[in-house]
Amino acid sequence: MFVGNEETVMPTPLLSRRQAIGSIFAPAAGAALSAALYPALNARAVPIASILGATPASAEDAARDEDFWAEVGRAFTLDRSIINLNNGGVSPSPAQVQEAMKRHLEFSNTKPPPYALWQILEPQKEAVRERLARQWGVDAEELAITRNASESLQTCQFGLPLSRGDEVLTTTQDYPRMINTFKQRERREGIVLKQFKIPTPCESPDAIIRAFESSITDKTRMILCSHVVFLTGQVLPVNDIAALGRKHNIPVIVDGAHAFAHLDYRLSDLDCDYYGTSLHKWLFAPHGTGLLYVRRDKVKDLWALMAPPPDKENDIRKFEEIGTHPAANHLAIAEALTFYQAIGPARKEARMRYMRDRWAKRLIDSGKGRVRLHTSLKREYSCGLATMHIDDIDHVKLVSWLWDKHRIFVVRVELKDEFEGIRVSPSVYTTPEELDRFCECIEWAMKNSVPA
Q: I need a surface site. Which of 25, 66, 227, 277 has the fewest CB within 10 A?
């Protein structure tokens, strides 16, 4: 359950200093929309990364360099009268990504759309696929570009065959839409959904593995697990869970919506067969973009959500057969990837953890025992997203008061009979001053109670 408010604003973007990330990232005037566009974007990534690379080499040092992160923040078109601490929901995109979308959308409408979309723009998606594959260490023929994590994961959840009485296994903390996908198969096909609890927070990977393995029966035919739990930010040992699946000959589907471009890793490191994620959360790609990884030898036997022609049964692109759709969203992923590479995955992960610690450790200390985290602060078990519970506070009223009175946007999360609290997820553009304002509001509420 989430409780919160959203407001869409498009303010005038701030300009950059120190060779201006904004000006570097701004699109070249009149850039030709042709098949040569994306090699050009590849080339642009090099000087941007070189400029940002002048910051201290250590990721931990860079995490504390406020000049560096001020430059990163200026790449976004943000209304700074609002403090957005719900970047785990969906993130804003940098100006360069927005501008790329505008270019592609304009091109789609100034030329005959069948020509612009299918002959010019759609083929350029192959360069985007190739760049994503290179960055995350897999074969381009294993990556489908989708609209979100739900589409990616449901492709696997619906695409793997199940029979009446077959069991599918997941935790109580997996994403509701994915749980509802299995529940629909329960109603429709007579399969059985089994869920189990995991500790919150958990600092024992072995406890997680034991919980999965003890729930496996001779009827288990599929496992779904989160890489990072959306409720708390808990990082699960997906490598070991994938290995457990292979041991029992059970396919494992990994929900990577909150891990991809948040944690510094490569898909090739995980050794999993199926991985679905959104790109509009932590990669800052256009809203409505996602990714599906399917190990190459698994592509043929996974059914697509929408029927492709028979000759595509062994082609990763069969999962992209969704009918007419805009090309702009998918092609602008290239600019989001350029931005991500310029920041650097290790520096980004270190910054996210640094910002998490800034508010969490302060409130634990000032709360004097009233503030409890449902998230471990140890680096191997979490990163930038965390959830806290405050004793003797109505979290629903607190979330509304933070928004109505202070324009601070967070969400309340609740897992029935397990826990509830406020989920806080800053981003690379969040400033220390914004987090300090958030902490001051929480401290005031703890001292004075939330106004009715």
A: 66
In the 8-state DSSP scheme, what is residue 310?
G
Please give the Cα distance from 93 to 440 (Å, whole number). Answer: 28
Hey, what's the torsion of the CAs at 448, 389, 442, 227, to 10 degrees? Answer: -170
**CA atoms within 13 A of residue 394's CA, in its CB half-sphere:** 9
Between CA 193 and CA 195 the distance in angstroms is 7
Q: What is the mean pLDDT of residues 180-201?
A: 97
Tens digits of residue pLDDT in 24-41? 333 332 333 333 344 444
Of 172, 82, 120, the C-alpha closest to 405 is 82
CA dihedral for 178, 183, 184, 186, sign (positive or negative): positive
SS3 readout for 192-246 = EEEEECCCCCCCCHHHHHHHHHHHCCCCEEEEEEECECCCCCCECCHHHHHHHHH
Tell me the residue type at 13.
P
How many of the other CB atoms lie within 10 Å of CB of 184?
A: 13
pLDDT at 18 (0 to 100): 34
pLDDT at 23 over 70: no
- Asked if 65 and 55 touch (Cβ cutoff 8 Å), the reply is yes
Rounded to whole angstroms, how far apart are CA atoms 55 and 448? 43
DSSP secondary structure string, 352-375?
HHHHHHHHHHHHHHHHTTSEEESS
Using a cut of 0.70, tell me whether the model's pTM lies above it. yes
CA distances from 326 to 96, 109, 114, 342 (A): 18, 11, 11, 27
User: pLDDT digits over 150-160, tens only?
Assistant: 999 999 999 99
